[in-house]
Design brief:
The protein is of the alpha/beta class and 285 residues long. It is built from seven helices and 13 strands. It has a single domain, classed as 3-Layer(aba) Sandwich (Rossmann fold), CATH 3.40.50.150. It is globular. Bound molecules: S-adenosylmethionine.
Length: 285
């Protein structure tokens, strides 16, 4: 019997056969939703210069051994596919828009190259310490993911620093004229200051079974990670494209933070999971 602490969101047998929406022909300012579709098709169909922020979490192809000669074709196919869809992103992003692409170390250089080729300015590569995954017997445990951060125009883009500052313990609280210099006292008597976030994120784990956001999707991103990106690189009312939506994490957080969103996912069961999460969010309001 499942533990009562297990909060994983699952589809009922009725939900598993429910209709899923496909991308409407015309997107208006009021359109928000998760749609079943293939991303290259969707990127060709979507309006030009429409989204302020794109968050893409593509499949990593990790089941393939790219070091094996017999699999060269597959590596090339993946490379060509990445070039194709990354090349379509500038068309749908506003000229002051931002883009984040998640990947693991094996594909990281491939995405860097694809972003350059597509004309993006790369501003950073964030490393997220995932803190989950099996250890390997003859290798270091795979415990990180990269998130490429790029913009169309490095002179004009949104970055809301104050929204994403993080608290840090102050070891030597310094006073000026008897008053704390940029720190504050917490109720437990320790001192803390809000600091600039770095490109190494160690404070969020992958969702697990006792967390209410957890679903059956095998590679679901934590809401906290997506929230940091959305708060930094968009404003309420902005339009966000959730590419490779999976269980809908980016769409759910966009909705919670009052942004418009379009999620694109090819697997109908994952679309249904995302839609279910949006409904759960509605009920909380
Ligand atoms: C890494 S997962 C995304 C997980 C998601 N960020 C979440 O939090 O649940 C990648 C997803 O892309 C979907 N996918 C793969 N190829 C696709 C394509 N060509 N078009 C649309 N979706 C695709 C897969 O079904 C999978 O759910």
């Amino acid at each position: 019997m499942a533990s009562p602490l297990n909060k994983t969101i699952r589809l009922s047998s009725k939900e598993k056969v429910s209709e899923v929406d496909t991308l409407p022909k015309k997107i208006t300012r009021m359109t928000s939703g998760i749609f079943q579709g293939e991303i290259i098709q969707a990127l060709n169909d979507l309006q030009k210069n429409y989204f302020n922020l794109i968050i893409a979490d593509p499949p990593y192809n990790t089941g393939r051994d790219f070091g094996n000669d017999s699999d060269k074709q597959t590596e090339n196919e993946y490379r060509e596919w990445v070039k194709r869809w990354v090349g379509l992103l500038p068309r749908v992003l506003t000229s002051d828009g931002s883009l984040y692409i998640c990947c693991d170390w094996r594909q990281s250089s491939l995405y860097e190259e694809a972003l350059h080729n597509a004309g993006f300015s790369i501003l950073n590569r964030i490393t997220w310490k995932r803190d989950k995954g099996r250890g390997a017997a003859k290798n270091w445990k795979q415990n990180m993911e990269d998130i490429w951060y790029a913009v169309r125009d490095k002179k004009k883009y949104t970055f809301n620093l104050e929204e994403v500052k993080i608290p840090k313990k102050v070891i030597a609280p310094y006073k000026e004229n008897g008053k704390p210099k940029d720190w504050y006292l917490k109720s437990d008597g320790t001192a803390e200051r809000m600091t600039h976030p770095s490109n190494i994120w160690t404070d969020m784990t992958v969702p697990f079974w006792s967390m209410p956001e957890n679903t059956e999707h095998p590679t679901q991103k934590p809401e906290a990670l997506i929230e940091r990106i959305i708060r930094a690189s968009s404003n309420p009312g902005d339009k966000i494209l959730d590419l490779f939506s999976g269980s809908g994490t980016t769409s759910v957080v966009s909705k919670r933070l009052c942004r418009k969103f379009i999620g694109i996912e090819m697997n109908p069961d994952y679309v249904r999971l995302g839609v279910k999460r949006l409904q759960i969010l509605d009920k909380k309001k």
